[in-house]
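note to self: dont lose this again. the chain is below, predicted strucutre after it. 176 aa total, dont forget to put it in the shared folder this time
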Amino acid sequence: MTRTGHVTRMALLIALAAAATMAVRIPVPKTGGYINMGDAVIYITALLFGRTYGAAVGGIGSALADFLGGYAVFAPFTLIIKGLEGFLVGALGSWRGSGDAGRPYLGAVVPIVAICVGGAEMVAGYFIAEAYLLHLGVGAAGSEVPGNIAQVLGGLVLALIIAPALRRIVAGRSEP
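---
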């Protein structure tokens, strides 16, 4: 793929992550934040295209959603937290260049572990940012933890359903 093709793909995935993040937002009144489904796009992207795509789509796409959606105070934290989340999932679980062409999940363990590690970083990152950097307090930041965990689990389920099918398409194969 050409450099222009990579830039175009990344821009489209960033826009998709921002749209998915903004499409379903469940507010968390104690922190002023929200729970969303954008993580599914981050996980799918990171699994299919690796850590660079995962970091860019996670960080830029999610921060863009915060900025455009009226949550600009979170955007700098989101850029770092979600960027690192996408990077970790891509670094630990990417199917790029793996020799498992005939096995759709690598036993499903590697992508699940990768998403859990990236998701744990996201949950901890927002807790620290809200409790200490935004000075909202441990109690308020803690109230968002269950929702963030649910966000990770929802993204994990969607990624495990959608990513293998997209992987076959990206690889130019249509058979299971």
